[in-house]
Specification:
There is one protein chain. The protein is globular. The protein contains 15 helices and no strands. The chain has 380 residues and is mainly α. α2 runs parallel beside α4 and α11 runs antiparallel to α12.
């Protein structure tokens, strides 16, 4: 878990670091920086299930070696590339990014007994929150205090070091009890990608849509009220709330389902815009919804892990990563559009309603793929 925490740090720092590099050093606008971010996100969404499939087929080491080399090469070469080339290689770099999230879930599933996985997944989600407290701040400090070539190269070196450590450690991604299932023929996708799994992916995408929209609306609210200086503290308090929720979720014997947690997350986000000033009151009303952040993400991992066959668990976890990244990718522009054409308060409502709409698509999909039960005929 510590190893995967370290592997995630450069991933959490790379978005803001690249944005500030494109804007400040290349003299481009935020739109141009957003294109690179979108290309990387799209690439990672495309690559996550493919990388997961190759982990299932070839094991951890070959995939980590290739992805580590690709990620470190991209970041080390980034400060020496013109913008057009940087944009062109951003998508393939995203496809071959180090799959730290997928690997963390696979390793935990292999090492932790079934009855303790909720606690393990919750702790992993807490560490994700911790990485987001450290990584972006470190990236901002590096790109603003050091020459850009050092900041971007440093991220590349971090990717190379983390990939090397994972390669050398080679943690197990398959439980010993599942060893025999990897000797047979790989099942067809339609045989295991059930309505339950598809619904879990949509719920995860909805949750990330809500979370990124909530954060964007919170920052817009602070900016509109002149309290933007408190943004760092507000984001930290939101992370603390998520960590608290993750600790509770991991400690209880029985927890709410993934769908119930996401609905509560959306419902608690819906009215936040009505009482969003001053900043400390916004922090208070955001606390309950953020308590549900880590539990919802941990429950998503738990649901997919339980529903996916061991033979294709890497690909299933990759699909979960892809769904989460799609939720993030579509959340920012949609909520940004709502805020630009209304007010920051409506951003919270749009985040919640959009999340519920995305989850509803998954529910509809599951019901449409579930055969109707035919009553048994009884003889008189």
């Amino acid at each position: 878990m510590l190893l995967m925490f370290l592997a995630r740090l450069p991933m959490t720092a790379m978005g803001v670091t690249m944005t500030l590099y494109v804007v400040n050093d290349l003299g481009r606008g935020y739109g141009a920086a957003g294109l690179i971010g979108a290309a990387t996100t799209l690439g990672s969404a495309i690559g996550a299930p493919l990388v997961g499939r190759y982990v299932d087929r070839y094991g951890l080491r070959p995939v980590v070696a290739i992805c580590g080399l690709a990620s470190s090469t991209f970041w080390i070469s980034a400060p020496h590339l013109p913008y057009q080339v940087l944009l062109a290689v951003a998508l393939p770099a995203g496809v071959l990014s180090v799959p730290a999230g997928t690997l963390a879930r696979l390793v935990l599933t292999a090492l932790v007994p079934l009855e303790q996985r909720r606690a393990a997944y919750s702790l992993d989600t807490i560490l994700v929150e911790a990485s987001f407290m450290i990584g972006p701040s470190a990236g901002i400090m590096a790109i603003t205090q050091l020459p850009a070539v050092y900041a971007l190269t440093g991220i590349g070196v971090c990717f190379a070091l983390s990939a090397t450590l994972i390669y050398r450690q080679d943690p197990p991604i398959r439980a010993e009890a599942d060893a025999e299932v990897f000797t047979g023929e790989r099942p067809a996708v339609r045989s295991w990608l059930t309505g339950r799994l598809v619904m879990a992916m949509f719920i995860a995408a909805g949750a990330l849509f809500c979370l990124v929209g909530m954060e964007l609306a919170a920052l817009a609210t602070l900016r509109a009220s002149g309290d933007i200086a408190w943004s760092g503290l507000l984001i930290t308090l939101m992370c603390v709330a998520s960590v608290l929720g993750g600790a509770i979720h991991g400690a209880v014997r029985r927890s709410l389902s993934q769908g119930t947690l996401m609905v509560l997350l959306a419902v608690l986000t819906l009215p936040v815009g009505l009482i969003a000033e001053p900043w400390w009151l916004l922090a208070i009303v955001l606390f309950p919804s953020n308590v549900l952040c880590a539990p919802t993400l941990a429950a998503s991992t738990e649901t997919v892990s339980a529903a996916a066959p061991a033979r294709v668990r890497g690909e299933a976890m990759g699909l979960l990563d892809a769904a989460s990244r799609i939720g993030l990718a579509i959340g920012s522009p949609i909520i940004g559009f709502v805020i630009d054409h209304s007010s920051p308060g409506w951003g919270f409502a749009a985040s919640a309603l959009g999340a519920l709409a995305i989850a509803s698509v998954g529910l509809f999909w599951r019901r449409s793929r579930t055969p109707a039960r035919v009553p048994a005929l009884t003889s008189s």
